[in-house]
What we know:
The protein is of the alpha/beta class. The chain has seven helices and seven strands. The protein has a seven-stranded parallel β-sheet with strand order 3-2-1-4-5-6-7, with helices on both faces.
Amino acid sequence: MGGRLDGKTALVTGGGRGIGAGIARVFASEGARVVIATRTVSRGEAVAREIAKAGGEAWAMATDVADAEQVRTMIAEARKRLGAIDIVAHNAGVFPSSTIARMKEAEWDHVLDTNLKSLFLIAKAVMPHMVRRRYGRIVVTSSISGPRVAMPGWSHYCASKAGVNGFIKAAALEVARQGVTINAVEPGNILIRRPGSREAREHEDAMVPAIPMGELGLPEDIAYAALYLASDEARYVTGQTIVVDGGQILPESQAGVL
């Protein structure tokens, strides 16, 4: 155990796979007791078993973060399990592809509800608890897509993540004097598909040429940035984002990637 989160408790949404699972594992390895919230509870339970096998403490629960009642239940259950919530790592999100011409209004609503409205619902539910205790860390998984760059077919996703960055700035101001910080990590292209699978190879072939470091990131690369923002080392950081993208947003053109 590393100990940077010793004695702390954490709720991780979207923690059943990919970046969220990486965050849950890293937080637990650093001493946090973790509740994993995910729509597919079997995935969360599998991650919780891994954490337990490594000597940590974790529980899983099924939650749709776009549903206000389920979010309130999630926070209440996490408090029941943990006693208090020190950290929320809000990672749950969706990223389907659809051009504006083909996109149905329901598709737009689904992405904005899951990626952006959910952050409002979670902040509204957990911030009073953190303010009363005069301590709290909210860390959100944003993206370079929207705030920094964009691709056709992801207007809804880009809008949601740009909204995340705007939200954390305003929210951070509301609780800055109450010991609560709100920050985000902006991942670039991360290997969340099974290594060696066709989907993983296609993702690498498409995106690696645009990444100066020449490889996709790993979930743990995002998790360690989230760990810093969740720790007391970042007590004086709020309303900010950390870009973790292997240098992808740096070149002016593909010619700048050697």
